[in-house]
Amino acid sequence: MRKKRIVILFLSVLVSGCKPMYYTHQVNFLEETAQTISLRCVGYGKDRFAAINDAEQTAFKTLLFRGIPESQQKDALVSTNESESSQKNSNYFNELLSKGRYKTFITSSIPVSDIEHYRGTMKQITVDVKINLYGLRKDLEQNNIVRPFGY
């Protein structure tokens, strides 16, 4: 009976420690030109490289599916329904985000903070990401993700 209680106590402690962790990705508008947009993003990962990639991907996801307040890109480039758009064009978004094709649209990615301990084994870093918005729009049009402007 005592062993059973210890096992139950151990399992309850183990299960209570398995809460999902949610990370608040922050994306702030810095500046824009006719062809580029600069964003300051916070990324999370197990190391510096993973955290920088997360910040860059977050910049793209926000630009594509949410829009950037206080900029010319207030509206999402693709759609505010991320799951529907991602499912409809799964090949494109898998290649763009998962396989790293988004990096071809980054003109600069500069870490502006040191890597910091966040929670558990996770680290966070702040990165200034400059995106070739003109090139990204053209790519979305050529792949029939969005209609060309003016049509």
Residue share in helix: 25-40%
Unreliable residue stretches: none
Content of β-strand: 15-25%
The DSSP helix count reads: 5
Query: Mean pLDDT, rounded to whole units?
Result: 86
**N/C terminus separation:** 74 Å
As a whole number of angstroms, the C-alpha radius of gyration is: 20 Å
How would the global form be characterised?
globular
H/E element string?
A: HEEHHHEEEH
Number of strands: 5
Instruction: Give the class from helix and strand content and strand pairing.
Output: alpha+beta
**Main sheet?**
5 strands, antiparallel
Question: Layout of SSEs?
Answer:
Blueprint: H1 2-16, E1 27-32, E2 36-45, H2 48-65, H3 82-88, H4 90-98, E3 106-111, E4 116-117, E5 123-132, H5 133-142
Helix pairs in contact: 3-4
How would you characterize this protein structure?
- It contains five helices and five strands.
- α3 packs across α4.
- The protein is globular, with a radius of gyration of 20 Å.
- The chain is α+β, with helices and mostly antiparallel strands and 151 residues long.
- The mean pLDDT is 86.
- β1 and β2 form a beta hairpin.
- Strands 1, 2, 3, 4 and 5 form a five-stranded antiparallel β-sheet that branches.
